Amino acid sequence: MARRYLVAGNWKMHGLASDLGEVAAIASGAERRPDVDVALCLPATLIERAARALPAFAIGGQDVHAEDKGAHTGDIGAAMLSDAGASLTIVGHSERRADHGESDEGVQAKAAAALASGLDVILCVGESLEVRKSGQAIPEVERQLLASLPEFEGNPSRLSVAYEPIWAIGTGLVPSLEDIAAMHGALRQQLVDRFGAAGGDMRILYGGSVKASNAGEILAIDDVDGALVGGASLKSADFLPIVEAAPQS
Ligand code: 13P
Question: What pLDDT score was predicted for residue 2?
Fold first, then answer.
């Protein structure tokens, strides 16, 4: 099965109703590349409005609770995300791991809950600058991935991994193309070891300072099946050229 590119935007804690026009512009521009899956993971407050306005476009959440409902003030369960119109969610973003003390086990439970309720998942992993400098980035991210991956038997395109080196997020720094290739190759092997042939069909996205000027060369790397884009996903003028940079499949 050929893997389709997935270019997903993560709006993080950005976006008001006045920004819904950008979501619409992105959805409309994405139609120029029907061979690429495009999604926007919006703040929870915008999901329902965006999904209602753009029923054919993939809108996602940025986090989900491991339980469907209960006494968890401020949290959102997978059924709630689906109910609001989301078709996917990010789990395990390094900002949540850092700001909210999320563990690999907690991320694994969130991923499992999201998949079980029908949401597609983008599971994030990535090393700190300290780990990168120590030369241990690959074994550390492999360990993180194995500890965070849920059991899964469905369509492999529903579970994607995003490799996001923490030191590359929002900094303008990007690993060398060789380092990205080495990491993605290692993660592919882990997925195949864990899921067999299905692991070969799961997508591995790169995230961290992706922009129009570097997207083409990053997306051309073997085993880079898409991008998870933060800052450059907020404006259609920045994001659509990244979608267009995906090699033709
Ligand atoms: P930037 O693209 O702003 O570096 O953010 C990457 C990211 O964290 C996406 O989840």
Answer: 85
